[in-house]
Hints:
The chain is 40% helix and 12% strand. By secondary structure, it is of the alpha/beta class. It has one domain: TIM Barrel, CATH 3.20.20. Strands 1-2-3-4-5-6-7-8 form an eight-stranded parallel beta barrel, surrounded by four helices. Strand 6, helix 6 (199-207) and strand 7 form a beta-alpha-beta unit.
Amino acid sequence: MDLVLGTMYFGTRTDEATSFALLDRFVQAGGRVLDTANCYSFWSSPTGHGGQSEAVLGRWLAANPGLRPELVIATKVGVEPTDDGGPEGLSARVIEREAGRSRERLGVDAIDLYWAHREDRSTDLEETVAAFGALVRDGAVRRLGVSNHPTWRVEQARSIAARLGVEPYTALQLTTSYVEPRPGAHVPGKDHRFGFVTDETVDYLQAHPEIDLWVYSPLVQGSYDRADRPFPEAYDHPGTTSRLAALHILARDRRVPASQVVLAWLVAKGWKPIVGVSSVEQLESALASDRIGLTPEELAVLR
Length: 303
């Protein structure tokens, strides 16, 4: 299965019992990849700090000890607020400290994929790259990824890693979907300046097939299926109108929700959609997308 289960609100908006039910069902259906962050979700916590999602995952893993070898557990560093309110950043000290704290909360010896959550230009990039590489060298982390960074910084970091002889980033995490906002338009809730997939991103990935793309918020907070959640104004342009028309015709012919077609379309592109759900019903709908298998003719219609 190519879907990733996003666990952002586990332990805050999503209570532990529901979180466990979602994890159980995801794994039962064949899902094996879980995505979280050390900062999830500080904005929903009365403490103003994150760690709740990792802690819930750790308790679930402890209750299901035989599953750990089958799973890919990804977490992030760089955005957790400090006591003065600013982001922790990506200094060597922060990376080493937070990797240890994340492993402790998760109850794991090693993190399968460790993400640089957002760039930190106040820290020399070589320091950041070397610190991530040291974690892999020491066995604390198995693989490295980078989220919400401009492509040129990703390539610069990979070049530094090659020069230093350390593990490079081999995964990108950005947001995109079947429809996209107008260039330059502000999208509420999407405050990462370089958080969107662009044509340059796609070209870069084509030139570097060893790099995976993970896509967060692929369903635009339910806008494809829910009338009470219209697309943000930034998506209001002729391209959206024509693409949604093609999508809804195909979804009607297939007798499936439009969201399932969107997830299947992303998977067909070789990308990994991260699905964030708050109920087993929502999860079941996302899981059903794995059975759609769009034909070449359907993909041509969707483009």
